[in-house]
Amino acid sequence: MTVVKTSMRNFLAHKGRMALSAVAVLLSVAFVCGTLVFTDTMNTTFDKLFAATSADVTVSPKAAEDDDQGPRTGRPEALPASLVQQVTKADGVKSAEGAVVSMSVTVVNADNKRMGSESGAPTIAGNWTRNDLKSMDITSGHAPRGPTEVMVDADTVEKNGLKLGDELRTIAVTGDITARISGIASFKMTNPGATVVYFDTATAQSKLLGRSDAFTHVSVTAEEGVSDTALKQRLAGTLDGAAGGPYKLQTAKEAADSGREDVASFLAVMKYAMLGFAGIAFLVGIFLIVNTFSMLVTQRTREIGLMRAIGSSRAQVNRGVLVEALLLGVVGSILGVGAGVGLAVGLMQLMGTMDMELSTEDLTVAWTTPVIGLALGIVVTVVAAYVPARRAGKVSPMAALRDAGTPADGRAGWIRAGIGLVLTAAGGALLYLTTQADEASGGSLFLAGGVLLTLLGFIVIGPLLAGGVVRVLGAVLLRMFGPVGRMAERNALRNPRRTGATGAALMIGLALVACLSVVGSSMVASATQELDKSVGADFIIESGPSGPIVPAAEKALRAAPHIEHVTGYKMIKAELTSPDGKKETEELAAADPTYAQDLRRETVAGELAAAYGKNAMSVGSDYAERHGIKAGDTMTVAFTGGETAKLKVAAITSDESNVDKGAMYTNITTARQYLPADRVPPNMIMFAKAEEGKEKAAYAGLKKALAKYPQFTVQDQTDFKQGLKDEIGQLLNIVYGLLALAIVVAVLGVVNTLALSVVERTREIGLMRAIGLSRRQLRRMIRLESVVIALFGALLGLGLGMGWGTAAQKLLALEGLGVLEIPWPTIITVFVGSAFVGLFAALIPAFRAGRMNVLNAIATE
Q1: What pLDDT does residue 857 have?
Q2: CA 622 centroid distance within chain
Q3: pLDDT: is 706 or 24 the higher one?
Q4: What's the rounded Cα separation, in Å, for the pair 116 and 157?
Q5: What mean pLDDT value characterizes the chain?
């Protein structure tokens, strides 16, 4: 109990000094708990939605599970309408109804504004059924009664300011559906952001499926007392071939589980990515905690020595420091768990701005979340304090007679430096091997090992590097400030271990920023170079998230003025049998012959234009080498949903290029020859070439042609390159935002180090003030010390990160991204920003130092 009381007294006595360390723990725990609460809430939202929308048993086409060619056509896989009657007659069936659902649609209002999300939640169109009453209520108007009426979900109505009677146009591959809003339906649970429109059954069949005798699935309701599983078994015995044939049967639970699996990968990536950044914040926080307790132990050397002199054992002193760490971990973790729930709510609001709606009514805090948060926070804090605690236990009773702490162990310092050099050298060797790798898969292992070892090496060798780097920075930046600058330099060099640990915390975050900046810039530069070299088309027309380019839009594009040619590009699934007898399911790029002009692909055999001849195709060089294919060989191509063809390999394209790497080409006419008309997909992308000297007029004409179709975009090569740059930039900005947490914790570390350093040097500061150092000079000295520590961490981090990024780019070069570009503006901005970080971190410590009473400072022991 004496140890606990003493630790509690010391904790409360230094509560101001512990506060910043507690904030570091709080932020790290909050990020972990916030991530868990946020993803659990998303799971709850989708679980409720899938559970409410699933029928007792759902019958759907098995082809929808095994083949994605149907969605590529813009028409979902369908069942014969006669199946509804067959299902209704089955034993145990109370009722059965056919349903139509399509997500390959776009809905626009009378002003041609899209009603759904451009990215994220889908737009869903279908027919209104009794099964929909399980998840929705008609809250205004009535269900659609004919082809000119449509019902819309209430969330879409509210977000877009719609009302009854407003006109909506639904764009599908089979044509447009223009109808007025006859009703508004509200979800009984949270709608994650989907836009839902309902038509009458006949309109949904003819306009969404292109046929009046089909449904996408059948919703079956069981009779009272018949379980879902039993009903599924009975239906399997009733429907011809259902056990392993054309139909897929799912109970409500199976359908809900299947829906959950569809979003599970997205949620898992988000969850583990965010937890990874939380782990980085924890790692940075460890440096802060180690520094805090190391300095507290140093400042209490005499106190610890006196405790040892009056009978306290090493174990008791050790336990005392660990109990303080435990108290810090408990307080920071408890606050972090609460902050994590608040962070989760904030993330939910942020997702709302991105068209993914989440309700606080579904807020899910599993019992494991606070347990994980508390365990992580406490364990990390206690582990971080272990080394300072051991150091405290080694303080001898004779230390009570000294004014300063025990002298540093020079031998331990040399051992540490040796270990750091070995780790750094090993990591550097692995990074070098990364640049020499012949395959990206093997090189990635070298890269991971090199990153880990060089990071550990720099952390361990930090005190040794601090001496040299700080002296260089002092010579370049601090000498101009005269004696104050020299004092700031000496203060930073006084304890290289402390400076190294403080700089290392900032180094970790900035190393990742620099690495990702190099990789992102290199990707953009490589893609830009590849586009300049390979793409001959003037314009690129891309489809949107709602599906392929609809035939009406394609027709408008081909009729645009000042266009030399327009090229269609479709992706078609097929099973290929190579001359060596091996079968593989691949995708063929079926394009117009002008694609050979729009994309300049190098060939290792034959001419690409020949691949667009009758019954001809091309293969990639990697595929050809793997199967021993030569130009002139014949491939057996079984088109999914169509016939089998014998196609001549007229060209073998080089896979050195990253654009369309590995693509196999054939003529659209060839594909149409072996596929039914309703199985030929619309274009996924299109290209256009302007008439000579008419580029601007052609660009304007193409945009005008697509004015009615806002889901498709027309881009010239400049637009396309800028769009690529913006996409990578947005991704990097998200990563930088997540890394900001680690950088904030690192800044807190600088603040804490300076604040404790000021307390440690109280008498020294008093003496300097007594011999004439002004308050202004004192504050400047502390600010300069902070700046040099921040710049030390920035130099290490940016240098390390550029090394990582350069090695990573060598792996990208194996995938065709061969340009290395160092984003010097970003690197310089981060370096200069680090100086401002140092100035900011020194504000409070410098202010407190300037307020010290000279006489009291001199009298302090």
Answers
A1: 59
A2: 31
A3: 706
A4: 11
A5: 84
Q: Are residues 649 and 782 in the same domain?
A: no
Percent of the chain with pLDDT over 70: 90
Question: Residue 637: its pLDDT value, please?
Answer: 93
Please report, for residues 10, 535, 543, the alpha-carbon distance to residue 702 in angstroms, rounded to integers and kept in the order given. Answer: 74, 18, 14
**At which of 212, 245, 278 does a domain end?**
245
pLDDT confidence of residue 244:
44
d(Cα 492, Cα 496) in Å, to the nearest integer? Answer: 7
Determine the Cα–Cα distance for residues 778 and 784; give it in Å rounded to an integer: 10
Strand partners, 359: none
Rounded-to-integer distance, Cα 760 and Cα 785, Å: 15
Residue 314 one-letter amino acid: R
**Both structure tokens of 428:** 């550097």
Of residues 330 and 414, more confidently modeled = 330
For 383-396, b where at least 16 C-beta lie within 10 A, e where not — what string?
ebbeebbebbbebe
Gap between the Cα atoms of 427 and 429, Å rounded: 5
Q: Whose CA is closest to 549, among 454, 687, 430?
A: 687
Please provide the size of the chain in residues.
Answer: 861
Q: What is the DSSP letter of 481?
A: G
Mean pLDDT of 592-617: 90
Based on the fold, state whether residues 20 and 91 are members of the same structural domain. Answer: no
Identify any residues that bridge with 599 across adjacent strands, giving them in sequence order: 535
CA distance 393 to 395: 6
> What pLDDT score was predicted for residue 408?
47
Chain Cα centroid distance, residue 342? 21
Gap between the Cα atoms of 358 and 46, Å rounded: 10
By CB neighbour count within 10 A (0-12 exposed, 13-18 middle, 19+ buried), where does 132 fall?
A: buried
Q: How many domains does the chain have?
A: 4
Q: Taking CA 360 as the corner, what is the angle to CA 354 and CA 361, rounded to the nearest 5 degrees? A: 130
In a domain, 435, yes or no: no
More confident residue, 117 or 50: 50
Split at pLDDT 50, 70, 90, the class of 71 is low
**For residues 417 and 466, is the Cβ–Cβ distance under 8 A?**
no
Is 151 in a helix, a strand, or coil? strand
Cα 456 to Cα 448: distance, rounded to the nearest angstrom? 12
Identify the H or E element spanning 389.
helix 368-393
Q: Which residue type, as a one-letter code, is found at position 619?
A: V
In tens, the pLDDT along 318-341 reads 777 778 778 888 888 899 899 889
Q: HSE on the CB side for 496, CA within 13 Å?
A: 19
Is residue 252, in this structure, part of any structural domain at all? no
**Which of residues 648, 683, 710 is at a domain's end?**
710
Q: How many C-beta neighbours within 10 Å does residue 639 have? A: 23
| One domain, residues 72 and 164 | yes
Confirm whether 427 is domain-assigned: no
Angle at alpha carbon of residue 119, lines to 117 and 124, rounded to 5°: 50
More confident residue, 63 or 776: 776
pLDDT tens-digit readout, 188-203: 988 888 899 999 999 9
Residues 68 and 95 in one domain: yes
Which residue type, as a one-letter code, is found at position 244?
A: G
Q: Are both 667 and 792 inside the same structural domain? A: no
Quote the domain boundaries for residue 640: 548-710
Question: What stretches of 608-716 show up as alpha helix (H) in DSSP?
Answer: 621-627, 668-674, 695-705
Same domain, 595 and 730: no
Domain-located, residue 439: no
Shared domain check, 771 and 852: yes
Q: What is the pLDDT of residue 426?
A: 92
pLDDT at 205 over 90: yes
Distance CA 85, CA 703 (A): 48
H, E, C per residue of 761-779: CHHHHHHHHHCCCCHHHHH
For residue 522 the two structure tokens come to 């290199």
Same domain (yes/no): 785, 706 = no
Token digits of residue 545: 């998230």
Query: What is the four-CA torsion angle of 707, 713, 718, 720, rounded to 10 degrees?
Result: 180
